[in-house]
Amino acid sequence: MDALGSVSVALAGSGGAGVMTAGNMLLEAASHAGYYGLMTRTSGPQIRGGEAAAMLRISTFPGDGQDDAFHVLAAIDWQNVARFAAELPLAPASLILGDPAAGEPPEVFTKSGARYAPVPLKVTAAEIAGAWPNMVALGVLAGIIGLPAASLEAAARKAMKKGLEPGIAAAQRGYALAAQLPALRLAPPPARSDRWLITGNEAAGYGALRGGVRFVAAYPITPATELLEYLAPALAKVGGTLVQAEDELASINMALGASYGGVPSLTATSGPGLSLMIESLGLGVAAEVPVVVVDVMRTGPSTGIATKSEQADLGTALYGLHGDAPHVVVAPNSLEDCLAATEWAVGLAEALQVPAIVLSDQYLGQARGVVDAPALGSAAVARLTAQGGEGYRRYALTPAGVSPMAIPGTPGATYTADGLEHNERGTPSSQASDHAAQMDKRARKLAQLDPGEAWASVEGEGDTALVTFGSCTGPAREALARNGKGVKLVSLRLLAPAQPERLKKALAGVKRVLVLEQNHSGQFLRYLRAEYDLPGEVKSLRRPGPLPFRPAEIQHALAQWGSA
Amino acid sequence: MSFQPVKFYQTGTFTVGNRLLAAEERSVQANMRRTNSINSGHRACQGCGEALGARYAIDAAMEATGKRLIAANATGCLEVFSTPYPETSWQVPWIHSLFGNTAAVATGIAAAMRVKGRSDIRVVAQGGDGGTTDIGFGCLSGMFERNDDVLYLCYDNGAYMNTGVQRSSATPAAARTATTMAVGEPPGNVFGQGKDLPAIAMAHGIPYVATATVAELRDLEAKVRRAMEFRGARYLHIFVPCPLGWGHAAHDTIRIARLAKETGVFPVFEAERGEVVSVSKIRRQLPVEEYLRPQKRFAHLFGKAPRADLIARIQEIADRNIRRYGLVDG
Question: Could you name the CATH architecture of B14-325?
């Protein structure tokens, strides 16, 4: 058997069993040993209790998609793990590890044909005072994967504050137990390079800081809360401020107020919060106040599945605003791209004096990965401000559409910023001519945007195109890396304003287009149909959250087409 | 030989439900035929004050209304832990509104009952302190102002617990949360006192406002029963310790709630049409340190550099409560 390029292991158990803690340490250990890695998580909605699984992929190559199946499913207990069965696909060659004290694994897992091997996690942990079964499981998994014992210990020392020595002892026992289990043959690690261990939400937060954001208004909502928790202390270090609001209406309007006051501002939320913020985004468009909203999408509608991922806020982000309201929508298409995309969105918002929405999702936001050090953008974009003087016109009809914005207090440049339609001075106006002129101005500044190469990731060549966005890009890339001859990947990063000329060029010569997205109604397909001319035959591959696409499904969809 | 019947009144204790009492004097929870409207098997943490408070409040409301009750519930811990996929603990008609709108949804239900001529069916709305004092405040004030026929139950644990302990506007002075550092250093919280929603409710002049804690569950039941004797908007603010968010032992929930009352940190009273009509006196007054010290969220007050100044300010808040509500005789 050839050595594996990546191994996928899942550690499951009931809430409080410590699967996330152990998963994070396994990822640290893999990173220490020189591998790439990704940990995604699945859990119920409650803060404690319920069921949880840490899903890891440790690999010799970078990437943020999941594999087709897990090589190992280890469970500390089986209480409600069966509920996640769809998220934990196994293959006949897979291995199921469970504590014999916790009973047999559920049939929903064993029917895959995977082999079951009992491992005495609890008994082993009980032999060491102060040790827990999750650390034994961690050791077993590290042993099966073949990570060096030194990496395991280093990860534990880095992560554990309490119970370190018993924890290390338990992990070492588990590591020794692995010798009796079938080993996974993971290929040696790649050459060392500059890498980060980061979550998508942290990356987005850092991108915001790099983009120049110095005020953040926050209101807790899963799965965006970590972004705000990251930013609270981080902002303080760079002289910024975070204020927790009483609801999403307050947080978006605080951000608008701060931006009007001259400080680049941002808030983060998820679908229900975005819906509440929409009215104020309209104000941002009309009064031309830059502001950024990071929408970490979860399944909807309504409260939906608050802890799980879906790409179903696309329609709201693009078309949810009232009136004709040109604005920017950017979608990061990898974990590390959360940084660049958010930084870019801040720059676009500031440069164009518009609201910008960053469409991240729970998968990217809460995934923790070892990634190549992200490319960092150049200096933060400065807003075009007015220095004052006679006859200041805030909404002057400039050729570029962007007009100098006077920060309140600028001598001689007092003006009224208004959501009412207005003339060039900002004075409210109900005249048709002012409305037409200001609508043209607001549309013009977006129409003239030149995103350069950043508008999309265009990879590969062929007469079939796989068109997607966001977190679907990871599995799409992997599918094409396996067998992508004749297939071109186009992953859109700038969703609004649409770039029809650029997509037309990218799809020149393409005869078939497969549109990949994670929502029920095909929002991305409808958007493409509305904004672009798609060549040749078009097919849709979609399903609602929370199950991520796996590379083999995409390969299968492309292959079916090939034979048609 | 003469026989003197013995009555096992446990006067002077906090004991709940004595089955030796006459049936009509027993607590709702002591009744074998209580409705169990939030039944067991839910996913609240060990020692959850909110689960306890909700069980007593809803069963009492069911009894008071002859089981003609509809419940609306804001997003939050109660909603999440009582409805773990694919199960539910609720044995009453129950709607999960969104986060900020429970009062309005409940108002709508009450209006529907009126339209249908079924005003005998009563409505309760429930929310945590975040859903009540922050995002739901506008709808709640509207419900008060219109005097809609709804009993609003606020379970106050002083932060957004389900999303990971972020501060709310009911978070008390100097309490550490995931989004507030220790007081005083940016981006920390200003030294506030939390939003005093019972007082705000009273300012609306609604028929009935009361506070209760899970340390005195018979008192909680009695207040729900009393609230159901009124028509119009009623507000019951229930103090529910949270072991996870407050950092105290799970078995100390009742003790912490009692200490909040006995120190004056949380005044327990009833008000009708904006006037206080009764208070639960402090039995044995204690300094606020007794309440603060067992909770990790206040640990920074007792660390290497003890913050006697902040503790003194919290004591001032308690003393003001004691003066304002007459919590101590003499």
Answer: 3-Layer(aba) Sandwich (3.40)
